[in-house]
Design brief:
The chain has two domains: about 15-70; about 75-130, no CATH class. It is about 35% helix and about 15% strand. The protein has helices at about 10, 15-35, 45-70; strands at about 80-85, 90-95, 105-110, 110-115, 120, 125-130. The strands form two sheets. It has a four-stranded antiparallel β-sheet with strand order 1-2-5-6, with no helix packed on it.
Length: about 140
């Protein structure tokens, strides 16, 4: 019997993209199972019931993709400094008690989504705001 060739661990380890693909496939498989499981069929009699289940699964899969894409995008995070949207003066990162960025609920076309982004505070205007990330160019 021959020994397998020595392959460095980093060469055989999946890339972050491949790990994400594996997670996606597991998530999609779970959605498939929810639709086609034998025990679910009693609740899926009419076309409306089937369509509603498919819409729920589609929205869940879409939100999962959106969350993962936002988490992987370094430009989706807030900048280290920001100007106040009211007065334009430099704002300060808002202190947080537990060291975690505050959660912000967003409504997207795919459904509700919660993101964590640093908040900023303007001592002049006494306003807390979430600065926008990188802006899309014309046509995007």
């Amino acid at each position: 019997m021959t020994e397998p060739p020595n392959v460095p661990a980093e060469a055989s380890a999946p890339s972050p993209r491949e790990r994400l693909r594996e997670q996606w496939l597991r998530h999609a498989a779970a959605a498939f199972d929810l639709l086609f499981a034998d025990e679910a069929q009693a609740d899926l009699i009419s076309l409306d019931q089937r369509e509603q289940r498919v819409i729920e699964l589609r929205d869940d899969l879409g939100l999962w993709l959106l969350r993962q894409h936002l988490q992987a995008d370094p430009d989706a995070s807030a900048p280290a400094t920001a100007g106040c949207p009211r007065c334009g003066k430099d704002a300060q990162p808002r202190p947080v008690a537990d060291g975690r960025a505050p959660r912000r609920a967003l409504t997207t076309r795919a459904g509700p989504l919660t993101v964590q982004r640093p908040a900023f505070w303007c001592p002049t205007c006494r306003v807390v705001f979430f600065p926008p990330g990188r802006q899309a160019g014309p046509g995007h």
